[in-house]
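#data-curation
PF: Archiving a pair of folding outputs for the training set. Convention for this channel: one message per protein, sequence first, structure tokens after, nothing in between. First:
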Amino acid sequence: MHDQAAETKPFVWPRITLVTAVYNGVRYIEDTIRSIVSQGYPNLEYIVVDGASTDGTVEIIRKYEKHLAWWVSEPDQGVYSALNKGFERSTGEIMGWLNSSDLLHINGLFVVGSVFAAFQEVDWITGRPTKFNPKGMVVDVLRLPRWSRSRFLAGANKYIQQESTFWRRGLWNRAGGALGTSYKAAGDFELWVRFFRHARLYPVDALIGGYRFHEDSLSWSELEGYNRICDELVDRELKDRPGAEAHALRFFRGVTRAVKSIPKVRGIWYRCVVNNLYRLPGPDSPPRIVEEGGGWVMRK
């Protein structure tokens, strides 16, 4: 007799590895940890790598030790080196990191786990960009960008919010299996450049994680340096690359650089060209992933 019940496999939440690197982060680290462990995601591997903090951070980590798969407190060579240390110990099918002052939204991990379970062909996702104030209140939720490798390299949609971004281990391995450690703040962007070589970035119309803006976060002066490094990374990616697309991207970037010194022209260029490229789907943009009727579907 045919037993349909025997063929029905119970749903298994994919294993998510989440890593937090911290150094002297006593002001916010407990909020960050609680935003993760309080979700109750049933298959979470959470790793915390501390750089030998001296301000009470270690005591807070110990308070949540039972929720951690592994943690360590020892000197390191910076945030990306610390993250690599955590990822080297990890086993999760899905991967991501959350900085020591940032937060996940309620049920953010369930969004991640269910999306990856629903679409085996999806290797890389990001949610709506959001921002928290220093008190942890959501103060900004942006529209859902349409991601495109060509437009990312053109400079039209380069700000991928790392706190909302997760990927499969297979993509991580194909892209080199480690974060670059040569940059103080652009290691995420350098990783995205490598990811785009192998997979499309799917936008998910949901809240996953957010960036907390505070006085110790990236300042506008540092942002200028960050943008400069991002431009160098893209120039390196496009250098000597043959083909019409690479030629067009180099030309577009050249025009963007040229108009920066002309205020009136710069404003028109960004409003009419760059911003539209950011908002509208490109020929290589994947569909949006949206929730309908209790499940995830893809919509153009």
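PF: Second:
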Amino acid sequence: MTKEQATDQQEAAKTPDSSSSGSPEEEQESRDRVAEMEEQDRRLKASMDKIKQKIVVLSGKGGVGKSTVTANLAIALASEDHGGKVGVLDADITGPSIPKMLGVRSHGLAMGPPGVFPALGPYNMKVMSMDYFLSSDEMPVIWRGPLKSMAIKQFLAEVVWGDLDFLVVDLPPGTGDEALTVMQSIPNIGGVVIVTIPSEVSQIVVKKAVTFTRKLGAPILGIIENMSGFVCPQCGAETNIFKTGGGRKIGEQLGVQFLGRVPLDARICDDSDQGTPFIMQHPDSLAAKAFLEIVRNIEKQIPRQPPNTKET
């Protein structure tokens, strides 16, 4: 997808479909669209077959730090300790933020006969986001659900992801079109990670996210409790700003594994704004150690398998 294509899709969103007369030309156009969609599905499957594990990061509501968790989990998976070949798909079409957090907003995308080559981030991580197709920070993406779903499928099918150990997909909040498209389009999802904060409000919405995932038949790797306590950098005292224990409580209630808790650290916000992944900048912090422990818990459930492994 080029910036021009993105603009065309913006314009298409404004134009109602008037093809209702059923003329031969329109019927041929309809057949061509079907053939194009079938070809895209074939390319999507071929692309995803080269990726050993696909991990989807989901949250029931906004404001829980899901993209921050995604960025740092991806860094942890690609780090020297784990050495994985990692890709990150920012599937939040209207609010993309992964390139900023990983410090790769200025990296250009290359085009070639195979498709679009993603930007390269830390540890040669591959990154794709709608952010690369917007002409300015002020440009909104004013699309209805079908256009957002179309863009996500293009990112899955037409981006040259290559052979990866992990593809981490950052979804927008909620269980709407983007989440549904990702969950139904990616074959053999390795698992879903659900991010919450300890508050009761967030816990209520997490239950919906768990039910959504189960209805779609995807395995749930577990729940991460983000913003779980704040440790004062001066005195070391811990304050539970959003309470604590909500993630573990929900996990016990719903039979979902609790992957771990990530404490609040003011430097996480600073590093995200500066485009420096937190766990690279502060590897000895409690929060960085929490991310690494969560990754170890995830890898216990989805050991790396060769691509194209067939179930027997």
